Amino acid sequence: MHIKVRNIYIDAILNSSIEVNVITRLLVDRARLTIQTNLILVLKTVLRNIRKFNRACKDIEVSIGSISNMQTIIVIEDINYKLILECLFFYNAQLTFIYNNNGY
To answer: Which residue has the higher pLDDT, 29 or 80?
Structure first.
């Protein structure tokens, strides 16, 4: 899915089963986002791995089509997707999903 962050479009994944937004450092640099480092966040993954994060971009406008919403996004070095948006984004943006007969 194409998501607009600042004035650039990115391929992103929407994941309703996670509870944080994540973005790669490379994309943060490309979009010229401001990184805040005055936080410490520790997450425990489903596989019981523990990851520590100390960087985030706060109050970033994220747009899908005509829907825009301000988000805080955790910065990590590398993930499979450049941007992953979490379930709270769906709620805040008041997104509704419509599926066809094949479930898409």
So the answer is: 29
